[in-house]
Design goal:
single chain, 5 helices
């Protein structure tokens, strides 16, 4: 009887958490696409399934990333695990400063817009407009010292994305990435998801944005030491999650900026989902060399290769 009760309570707790997350993701009225945590017992796509196909919507033709470090803590400074917030900022900015023009990002140039829903090969459609991979995709960084709400929800992140638009200017090809400090995250971080991306409305048009909690807070569940087992003074290992998860969200916003109208497979997986948390074999996460240094990344799905590529 006691075991039955405990199992029942466990199921109830799980359902309650799932319901809480589901309610949160619809709070600002737009779909949210989340990267699941790493869990050896969980089922991941692992590159399986059908090809990605266009759902008739837009891609980011000339990708741009705007980074917002939200919260006064980023200005005053904090430390976790022997590393400072300034080191975290250096790591994050270095990754996004170097990702443009990289071979890692080149797999996305096969995807396009202005094609019928169901298209899997852009070359088969006249007038297709492709993703490009220019260098210098980091459009700017802003430390917004306004207070992060203690009860942080999707509407709060969407609101901060709109403040980022006001600060940087509107760009339909941009992902406005909201990085919150240690201890500040939306419900489900580290237990269900590591980050998510969504969109919202502005007077200028649709805005694509990503919610990026402080990944080291979740430890191995969100990529710590996933590629680099030994940490170094730069933060390789400890900050692996920032580039693995950040790269996952970047890749998905480029190919599906307004979920889920871009490129997904029949199960609803985007190019990052199909290759998440692969540790060995084809498509395994690895360090990739960017113009700004070496960073841990996961692979991304390529229709052209029919698999996960780095």
């Amino acid at each position: 009887m006691r075991r039955t009760l405990l199992v029942g309570l466990s199921i109830f707790a799980t359902l309650t958490l799932n319901f809480a997350l589901a309610g949160a993701v619809s709070a600002h009225g737009q779909p949210v696409h989340a990267m699941k945590v790493h869990d050896v017992k969980a089922a991941h796509h692992k590159g399986g399934g059908t090809l990605l196909f266009s759902h008739g919507g837009a891609i980011e033709r000339t990708p741009v990333v705007f980074i917002v470090f939200w919260g006064g803590q980023w200005s005053s400074g904090f430390s976790t695990g022997g590393y400072t917030s300034a080191q975290a900022q250096t790591y994050v900015q270095g990754f996004f400063r170097g990702v443009g023009g990289s071979s890692w990002a080149s797999s996305m140039t096969q995807y396009c817009q202005n094609v019928p829903s169901g298209t899997t090969n852009c070359a088969s459609v006249s007038g297709a407009a492709y993703v490009t991979n220019p260098s210098g995709q980091l459009g700017g960084t802003w430390v917004d010292t306004s207070i992060v709400p203690s009860k942080l929800g999707t509407s709060s992140i969407a609101g901060e994305a709109l403040r980022a638009v006001a600060h940087f200017g509107y760009n339909v090809n941009a992902d406005y990435m909201i990085f919150t400090p240690s201890g500040s995250s939306t419900t489900g971080f580290g237990t269900q998801f590591c980050a998510w991306h969504s969109s919202t409305s502005s007077s200028s048009g649709r805005v694509s944005f990503s919610n990026m909690p402080y990944q080291p807070d979740a430890g191995a569940a969100c990529g710590m030491n996933f590629v680099n087992q030994t940490a170094d003074s730069f933060g390789h290992g400890y900050f692996d999650g920032f580039s693995i998860v950040g790269g996952h969200e970047y890749g998905e916003t480029v190919t599906d900026p307004f979920p889920s109208s871009g490129w997904l497979d029949g199960s609803g997986a985007e190019n990052g989902d199909k290759c998440a948390w692969i540790s060995t074999g084809t498509g395994a996460a690895a360090n990739t060399r960017l113009s700004t240094g070496s960073y841990a990344v996961q692979s991304l799905w390529s229709n052209a290769s029919n698999g996960c590529v780095i």
